[in-house]
């Protein structure tokens, strides 16, 4: 199939490339730049996903994304609310929840894979288990590249965000991670079998417009979306390791 509806903007996404080794096929939206794996591709089963992430957690028991924790804590302090209530969507082994709670911030998490440590009372498998409160700080660290329905999740998170709160997310942006999109086949981020969606900065600009958010760019790869004091901060994570050359069927 040469055309697919874009999962972000609904526009036409054309065939982008096919990996002959894994048989993964990707589509790229001409409108918003979103790149996504073919929906019919064989996704990891729940059990496979569980063992994939458990393996990651065992390698990194404090959480694999500790580098952004100080930034998140400073965002929490800049909310001007005390105590800030926090939600970490896709919290993994709850390393961030532990860090936030150690700093006096009541933090909760959502993850499909059950956490098996002392943070378990604060982690739920979906939104329905959460306390019925608005959160001043919502984080989604390296989560959105895993989602088949990123817009629905973003809207759910915005609905849970307090009027003066922050939504902080990280995902590697294609236009910042690569000097040219032609390097996509060699991008390690794309080789993770659980990564199915890849955002460009203009994909985020589309989401900002759609939700009435104002986009501001600051610093290297950080930008803020602002809607009536509600801010969505997206941080680019610099992960652009190139592997050996492979022959891919590609249309760019
Ligand atoms: Zn699109």
Walkthrough of the structure:
It is globular and about 50 Å long. The protein has a single domain, classed as Vaccinia Virus protein VP39 (Rossmann fold, 3-Layer(aba) Sandwich), CATH 3.40.50. The two termini are 16 Å apart. The chain is 24% helix and 26% strand. It has an eight-stranded mixed beta sheet with strand order 7-6-5-8-9-13-12-11. Strands 1, 2, 3, 4, 10 and 14 form a six-stranded antiparallel beta sheet that branches. Strand 3 (25-29) and strand 4 (35-37) form a beta hairpin. It has seven helices and 14 strands. Mean pLDDT is 79; it is low at 217-230 and 237-246. It is α/β, with parallel strands linked by helices and 252 residues long. Zinc ion (ZN) is lined by residues 6, 8-9, 11, 29, 31-32, 34.
Question: What are the main properties of this structure?
Answer:
252 residues; alpha/beta; Rossmann fold; 26% strand
What is this structure, in a nutshell?
The chain has helices at 46-59, 69-78, 95-102, 150-160, 174-177, 188-191, 201-210; strands at residues 3-5, 12-18, 25-29, 35-37, 86-89, 107-110, 123-124, 135-141, 161-170, 197-198, 214-218, 222-227, 230-235, 249-250.
């Amino acid at each position: 199939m040469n055309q697919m509806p874009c999962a972000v903007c609904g526009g036409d996404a054309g065939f982008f490339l096919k990996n002959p080794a894994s048989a993964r096929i990707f589509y790229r939206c001409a409108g918003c730049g979103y790149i996504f794996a073919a929906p019919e591709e064989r996704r990891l089963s729940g059990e496979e996903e569980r063992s994939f992430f458990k393996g990651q957690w065992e390698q990194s028991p404090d959480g694999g994304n500790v580098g952004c924790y100080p930034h998140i804590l400073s965002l929490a302090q800049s909310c001007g609310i005390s105590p800030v209530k926090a939600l970490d969507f896709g919290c993994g082994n709850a390393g961030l929840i532990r860090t936030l709670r150690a700093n006096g911030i009541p933090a909760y998490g959502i993850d499909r894979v059950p956490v098996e440590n002392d943070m378990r009372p604060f982690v739920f498998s979906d939104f329905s288990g959460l306390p019925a409160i608005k959160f001043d700080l919502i984080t989604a660290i390296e989560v959105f590249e895993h989602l088949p329905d990123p817009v629905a999740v973003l809207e759910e998170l915005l609905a849970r965000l307090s009027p003066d709160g922050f939504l902080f997310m990280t995902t590697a942006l294609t236009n910042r991670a690569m000097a040219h999109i032609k390097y996509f086949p060699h991008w390690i981020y794309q080789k993770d079998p659980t990564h199915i969606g890849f955002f460009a900065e203009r994909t985020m600009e589309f989401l900002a417009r759609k939700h009435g958010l104002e986009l501001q760019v600051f610093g290297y790869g950080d930008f803020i979306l602002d809607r009536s004091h509600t801010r969505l901060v997206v941080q680019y994570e610099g992960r652009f390791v190139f592997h050996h050359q492979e022959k891919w069927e590609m249309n760019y």
